[in-house]
Amino acid sequence: MFNFAYFLLLVLLVSAAAAAVLVRGMITSVIVLSVFSVSLTLVFSFLQAVDVAMAEAVIGAGLLTAFFVTAISRARRKTK
Amino acid sequence: MIREMSFVAAISVFCIGLYCVLTDRNLIKICVGLSIMESSIVLLLVAIAYREGGLAPVFSAEIETYVDPVPHALALTAIVIGAGVTAVALGLSVLIYRHFGTLNIDKIWRSLG
Amino acid sequence: MSHLPVLVIVIPLIFAFLSSLAGFWPSAVRRGIVGVGFLLHPLCVVLLVSRMLIRGPLLYEVGGWAAPLGIMLLVDELSVIFLCILALGMFFAFLYSFSTGTARQEKLHVFFFLLTASISGQMVAGDIFNLFVFLELTTVVSIALVALKKKRRPVISAFVYMVYAAISSTLLLIAIALLYNATGTLTMAHIAQRISYMPPASYAVVLVSVVISLGIKIGLVPLHFWQADAYDGAGSTVAGIFSGVVMKAGVYALLRLIFTVLGAGGAHSRLLFGFLLMAGCINIAAGHIGALFQLNLKKMLAFSSIAHAGYIFVGIGSGTAAGLAAAVFHAFNHFFLKTALFWSGRFFIAGKRSSFIPRMRGIAVSFPAMFIMFFLSALAIVGIPPTAGFASKWLIALALQERGLLLPLVFIAAGTVVSLWYYARIFVLAVQHPHETGNGIQGARMTKRQAAGALLVLMVLCLYSLSAAFFPQDFYSVFEAAAFRLREPAEYMEILLAGALQ
Amino acid sequence: MSRKGKRRQRWIVLGVLICCALVLGTAILPMSVSAERVSDHYIRYGVSETAALNLVSAVLLDYRSFDTLGEATVIFAAVSAVSVLMSGGGLSRNRRTLSNLARCAVANIYPVLWLFPLYVILHGHLSPGGGFHGGVTMGVLLIMISVLYGTAFSLPKLSLTALSYTEYSSALAFILVGLAGVVHGSGFLSNIGAGFFKGSPGDLVSAGFLPLLNVIIGFKVAAGLVSIYYQLLRSGD
Q1: What ipTM, to 2 d.p.?
Q2: Interval B65-105: pLDDT, tens
Q3: Do the chains contact at B71 and C180, CB–CB below 8 Å?
Q4: How far apart are CA C269 and CA C273, in angstroms?
Q5: Alpha carbons D126 and D50: distance in angstroms, whole number
Q6: Residue of A54, A55, A62 lying closest to D140 (CB–CB)
Q7: b/e per residue, B36-67, with b = 16+ CB within 10 A?
Q8: Per the structure, how many domains does chain A have?
Q9: B104, β-bridge pairs
């Protein structure tokens, strides 16, 4: 049975991944990466994987974004 | 049909991540590609666990069919390992920036001479 | 119920946490903890090896769960051989790092303990996901060890290594996901039993992704570019451990996954062995030619490691039990030879303050003892008759000749000649009189005691490499038993399933 | 490498990747669910054997707890690696704080935010969640403090040595819990077999050492990730 809502979610997921890769700037790429993580969390909750959805939400959207932003701020200090 | 859609999505996200890792010139963008590649495998593991009509693997009396809990445990471990490797990758990128003053790999290879 | 298989992993872990905790305590306490730690692990390995040789393969159920439920640890001849390499390698690495003062780098011993724990975890793992977790731990620790010196070149080669290692671990995870979905279990023996359920397309993809993923770790030719830079970036102590111990962990994982889990004897075996033979020949050619044109001593030794990985692939690819035993024996010998070369080479690099070979003029004069060790190990690794290197190459050649495969024989012979050439090049330079007498002498900053400690370690390594050919026959019978058990997965399964019936 | 060369190289990589995708697709797409699976046993007897309602936590912490020990060690190795790589200059104590509005808003709801990770850790074996989820959430909450009030404010409250002590001692605690099984003789990291209190499924204190391990992993992961955050912030010149 073809679930159209889930198909749209997967299209959002793949386009977020493609956007995170194709976009030029570092900061925008990291923000699109957290959008990718949030959409991945929705996909997991649709697939009845509750534990993995929580972990992906906290680690993907929360933690990795914090690390990426910190690394970018450290890697842009001199050129400011 | 849901499983096959998820497999197609997992493979395409894996190839997008691999494309970014192989062709991008910016160190931080390579770490983004790495993180996307790791997440695609987590999606593959969770898609493998899905059963038609199965519910979340938390036991309660009236549910009969559950989703397979083992790939969820593997997926959890894979997410945390991916986060650890990404943290080390970011640490390396900051260290490379301190030595070479740039995050662009072509400039780094050129200055290595 | 002897707890040795799990203690071999847990004890280095405990000492890794203790020695990092001791970072806040006075250095005498820390040195004591590290000292006890690096003695205890070889002791456990010796006990485990002797128990295994007497009573046969040992099975351990972690968590007390029977076979298919929990994680199984299984110790058979193959894991015993590679555990010996690990125990000796890390024991000498600790001794060597104490004696040459590289121990000053902070957290070096924490990483050595973590490396010991993760590689012994791979050697006894009976569960493919457990193998993946310990491979991942080895990767993170290796990245840290390559970038430990934080200079310009090691940092970028650590990043390149990290990218290669991430791709390799993702491929291995794909293979594990496919195997789990087809067979429904993660224990190696049960997967081997139910491998026929897999559709041929998935089986081929799993086989290819396992070979590529572990090919990156071992240095299969198109995937080996990270190796030379990573070894050059890491210190000589760490480079010796990488090429001696960490690469062998990749070889062990490849053997275990191909032969035991995927049942290489099946329909795909002729294709797989043909591929391994061809890959081995390419490795030998690329490794030796790369080493010939390399003017950096550590990179030259790294390319020579790639060539010797080629010999191991050719041995496996011969497809016979004798060839497999010779390949495992060559992996065992290669540890002693290559580690001795790296560690004796360290003194030349420190003395001349550069690893540029043309500047190595007159090292025989400034470091006579170290040069003798380097010379003997070089003889052994090239394969001059009385040494261990010759013994294992000869056995590989015999296995190939028995199967009538002449092309790899040509490659092995040509490789020996080329390696003779690029090592002779160093000896010619070394015996000449060092024209700038200035920095030759004061180069040796180490105190006499430190050089003596390193010399002791190197002497033991060279002693083995010279006398291995004369070891009694039952020393080599362990390798044959390992090869036999690898080619007969049914027997491996019995032990694991027998464990389930207890 | 000219710009045109670089673009051609990208197309080559893209082509190779599409072939990999097709190969992977042919292998993965026809995959059907395998006949007998070890997870049938977990689903049918999981609750009765481990008294944990959350089957994923039962698999993660009881049946396959050796993987979790390996994975906690991977985090430990990542933290040590980042601290070694970043060990240059002193810890940066900046006064950069967010706007007044953000600080007041968070100041009021901050205690409530702590309910979530504590609930997730303590009920790890009953409801979805567990050591890792709670630990990472605690780490994120602590990082939020130093983002909001600047590390000059948060560092004296939670110094790097305190974080390292927590992480190393909880790592040792994890192994000691495992060694209890060895001492008892029923195998490393064995739960009910090693005499831990089983209790009836559904109680807060049940399922042997699962709550204990969840708490240990929670503190270990939280301390590790916050110290990674502080290390990444180092000036290091």
Answers
A1: 0.94
A2: 888 899 999 999 999 999 999 999 999 999 999 888 888 99
A3: yes
A4: 6
A5: 11
A6: A62
A7: bbbbbbbbbbbbbbbeeebebbbbeeeeeebb
A8: 1
A9: B26
Cα–Cα distance for residue pair A63/A42, rounded to 1 Å: 18
pLDDT band for position C9 (cuts 50, 70, 90)? very high
User: Does residue A20 surpass a pLDDT of 90?
Assistant: yes
Q: What is the pLDDT of residue D236?
A: 55
Domain of residue A62, residue span: 2-79
Longest Cα separation, chain D: 69
**Matching residue, tokens 């128990």:** C51
Q: Which residues pair with B66 in a beta bridge?
A: B55
Is the per-residue pLDDT at A80 higher than 50? Answer: no
Residues of C in contact with B100 (CB under 8 A): 152, 156
- Angle, CA of C371, C374 and C378, to the nearest 5°: 140
SS (H, E, C) C253-267: HHHHHHHHHCCCCCC
Closest Cα of chain C to D226: distance in Å?
17
For testing contact with chain C, the best of D188, D191, D210, D213 (most C CBs within 10 A): D188
* β-bridge mates for residue B26, sequence order: B104
For the residues D108-136, what does the mean pLDDT come to? Answer: 90
Q: What is the pTM of this model?
A: 0.94
- C-D Cβ pairs (cutoff 8 Å, strict): 166
C436 phi and psi angles, rounded to 5 deg: -85, 95
Higher model confidence: residue C180 or residue D200?
C180
Residue C437, pLDDT > 70, answer: no
Residue D131 near residue D221, CB atoms below 8 Å: yes
pLDDT above 70 coverage of chain B, percent? 100
Residues A21-45: pLDDT tens digits? 999 889 999 999 999 999 999 999 9
User: Cα(C261)–Cα(C187) distance, rounded to whole angstroms?
Assistant: 9
Do B81 and C133 make contact, defined as CB atoms within 8 angstroms?
yes
DSSP annotation of D88: S
Task: Decide: A and C in contact? Rule: 3+ Cβ pairs under 8 Å.
Answer: no
Q: What is the pLDDT of residue D1?
A: 55
pLDDT over 90, % of chain B:
58
Res C442 pLDDT > 60: no
Using CA coordinates, name the residue in chain C closest to D62: C63
Residues of C in contact with D132 (CB under 8 A): none
Work out the mean pLDDT of chain D and round it to a whole number.
85
Query: What is the rounded distance in angstroms from the CA atom of residue B34 to the CA atom of residue B40?
Result: 10
3-state secondary structure labels for all residues of C402-461: HCCCHHHHHHHHHHHHHHHHHHHHHHHHHHCCCCCHHHHHHCCCCCHHHHHHHHHHHHHH
Res C444 pLDDT > 60:
no
Residue C163 forms contact with B (CB below 8 Å): yes
Q: Which residue shows structure tokens 């946490």?
A: C17
In whole angstroms, what is the distance from residue C105 CA to residue C108 CA?
6
Q: Is C246 exposed, middle or buried (0-12, 13-18, 19+ CB in 10 A)?
A: buried
Q: If contacts are CB pairs under 8 Å, which of residues 130-189 in chain D contact chain A? A: 130, 132-133, 136-137, 139-140, 143, 147
Which residues in chain B are closer than 8 Å to C114, comparing Cβ atoms?
Answer: none
Please report the pLDDT score of residue B9 as a whole number.
93
Contact in structure between C392 and C330 (CB atoms under 8 Å): yes
